[in-house]
Specification:
172 residues, mainly alpha, binds zinc ion
């Protein structure tokens, strides 16, 4: 799913771990649960609008991504202090797969289009595996525009939970 959704889940995880666990378990379990949360959240992402490829000619796609990137950036700014640890580990799979491995792979394929290098180092292979085992029954709506409503609903529900958990925000 989108970065903002991962971030909100991460904030909830860090609040709960720090409320219920003592040092160093609060840190250890924040990292473990945040990492696992990415697998679960991406696992169910098939019910939201999530085209596997960039739809450059599609206005709806472009506008939705402008909005969701802006909201994601906003969530990073307001929650990075004090929730950076959980947010980092809740997004580490995307940081590695999308912003590290994929650009390297692109460079290699420019020289050698046949290259399979890197394919097995994708974290999202774990997501695909878990989705097949646990979430195969979910309706696939990745090309359905109405899927954005599901993601918006999730973002609202998570944000409301954060109000109840009295999440602290960096900018007040
Ligand atoms: Zn992901």
């Amino acid at each position: 799913m989108e970065t903002v959704t991962h971030n909100l889940v991460a904030v909830i995880i860090q609040i709960l771990c720090f409320n219920f666990l003592i040092f160093p378990w609060n840190l250890i379990f924040t990292i473990i649960f945040a990492f696992i949360s990415h697998i679960i959240v991406d696992g169910i992402a098939v019910i939201t609008y999530h085209t596997p490829d960039v739809q450059k000619g599609d206005k709806f796609w472009i506008i939705w991504h402008y909005i969701i990137y802006a909201v994601s950036l906003f969530s990073i700014i307001i929650f990075i202090i004090p929730y950076w640890l959980s947010m980092l580990f809740a997004n580490i799979m995307d940081l590695w797969d999308w912003f590290t491995l994929r650009p390297i792979q692109k460079k290699i394929r420019n020289k050698n289009p046949e290259s399979k290098w890197g394919d097995k180092y994708y974290f999202h292979r774990i997501v695909d595996w878990v989705r097949k085992k646990l979430f195969f029954w979910l309706p696939k709506r990745v090309y359905k525009r109405s899927g954005v409503l599901i993601e918006i609903f999730l973002i609202c529900a998570l944000s409301i939970s954060l109000l109840f958990l009295e999440a602290s925000i960096f900018i007040t």
